[in-house]
Design a protein that fits this description.
The chain is mainly α and 229 residues long. The chain is built from 9 helices and 3 strands; from the N terminus they run ααααααααββαβ. The longest helix is centred in the middle third of the chain and has 21 residues.
C-alpha cells in the first residue's frame, strides 16, 4: 500500500475544525495536529487551524530541546488579529516555562520565560476586545505561580509587571469596567495529576472551562496537586 496523504475538501473544513478541538479536549494533541495540517494543506491561512495547530504543538511540550517552540511561534505570528497574535505568543512562553519546570529545570532559570509571558499578556490586555479577560486570567495565574515558588526569583520582577499584583477581570487598566460576562473560552485548567504508578503527569491546559471539567471527571482516579508546573 502506498503511503501517500490524501487531501481533504475545502467544503469539509468547517466540520474538521470541531474534531481537532475535541481531540485537544481529550488530551490527544497529535490527532488534533494531524487534522489541522490537513486543513492548512487546503487553506494555508485558515486562522482557526493556525491557532489550534500552534496550541496542539504546545500541548506536547516536555521541557526538552525537542520541543517545537519555533514552529509554534511561526504559527502564532501568522494570526492576523494583533490581539490573538500577542495573546497566543504569551501562551507559548507560559507553556514553555511550565514545561521546563515539569522537566526539573531550576526555577530561577525559568523565571525570565515567565517574565516574557507576562509582558505579552500585559500587552494583550491593553488591546483586548470588550468583555475578554483571558489575558488577565493568564497574568494572574503566572503571578500566583511565581508567588508560590520564591526560588523563581520573582522578587526581581520590575514594578510594572509583578509588584502591581493581581488584576481584576472585568476591569480595564484605567479602572473602567467591562462587562462581567465573557463569551470566549478562557485558558485556566492546567494541573498536575499523579497516576497509580506515582508518576507525575502534566495534564494539558485547555482553553475551555467546560473541557477542563470533562477532563478532570475522566481522571477521577488521579490525585490532583494544587500547584501547576
Amino acid at each position: 500500500m502506498e503511503l501517500k496523504l490524501k487531501p481533504i475538501s475545502r467544503a469539509g473544513i468547517a466540520e474538521a475544525i470541531p474534531k481537532a478541538e475535541v481531540y485537544r479536549y481529550l488530551n490527544e494533541p497529535g490527532e488534533a495536529e494531524s487534522i489541522c495540517r490537513d486543513i492548512l494543506s487546503e487553506q494555508a491561512d485558515h486562522q482557526t487551524a493556525l491557532r489550534l495547530l500552534g496550541l496542539a504543538i504546545t500541548d506536547q511540550f516536555t521541557g526538552e530541546v525537542s520541543d517545537r517552540y519555533l514552529e509554534a511561534e511561526r504559527l502564532f505570528r501568522g494570526l492576523i488579529s494583533e490581539y490573538e497574535r500577542v495573546y497566543h505568543l504569551g501562551i507559548l512562553q507560559e507553556r514553555k516555562a511550565k514545561a521546563q519546570l515539569c522537566a526539573g529545570r531550576p526555577p530561577h532559570t525559568v523565571y525570565p520565560i515567565f517574565e516574557e509571558a507576562m509582558g505579552l499578556f500585559d500587552a494583550a490586555e491593553k488591546i483586548r476586545p470588550p468583555n475578554n479577560d483571558e489575558s488577565i486570567l493568564r497574568w494572574n495565574r503566572c503571578v500566583r505561580l511565581l508567588q508560590s515558588r520564591p526560588a523563581c526569583g520573582h522578587q526581581r520582577l520590575p514594578q510594572r509587571t509583578f509588584q502591581s499584583g493581581l488584576r481584576h477581570t472585568g476591569e480595564a487598566r484605567d479602572g473602567s469596567q467591562f462587562g462581567a460576562a465573557d463569551d470566549r473560552p478562557a485558558v485556566g485548567c492546567h494541573y498536575f495529576s499523579y497516576l497509580e504508578t506515582g508518576r507525575a503527569v502534566c495534564a494539558r491546559e485547555d482553553e475551555s472551562d467546560e473541557a477542563a471539567s470533562g477532563l478532570k471527571q475522566a481522571t477521577t482516579e488521579t490525585q490532583e496537586v494544587s500547584a501547576d508546573c
